[in-house]
Model the fold of this input.
Amino acid sequence: MLAEVNPSHAARIAVPGIIIGAVIAALVVAIGLAAYAFVERNTAGRNAHESKARELAVLAKDSLSDDPERSILLGMHAANATLQYGQPPVATAEDLLHQALLASQLRLTLSGHKDKVWSVAWSPDGKRLATASSDNMAKVWDAASGQELLTLTGQVGPVWSLAWSPDGKRLATGSGNEEGTEAVRICPDEKMKKARKRS
Done:
């Protein structure tokens, strides 16, 4: 004989099942919507980065003939607008950066002074450069590689000027400070020999 099922008991069993089913369905829908929102957010971010890169590339192209060095900087920022987020550079940004590098007359940047550079002089043989700076130093550089060969310290203040001797064996520097102390120093030949050997 079959047992009779009480309708109120069946309803009590069915209601939690329906609620659990509805909660699971709501969870599935919520997870699906979250995944969709995540994909859309990433797509929007990627599009924003690419848009910024294209905008910078247009600015770089506009200044290419007047200021190639500015175009290089803008092209670098355009390429970096996507690279920093793990995306490849936009093709127009990369192409423009190459064009700007080819158009630029800039071939070397000397980095080493901590303040303004006031004077630059080529050695008579053209193999070395000397720089004078507000950081109270003069430096001698290899003109081809940009390698720092010699740093002259001990100046009385900012180095305002410098000049090579006609034979390129000595370097004179002129410096001064706010108290009115001024000095002209001649770099000893021994130091310059070391710099000549390294270049």
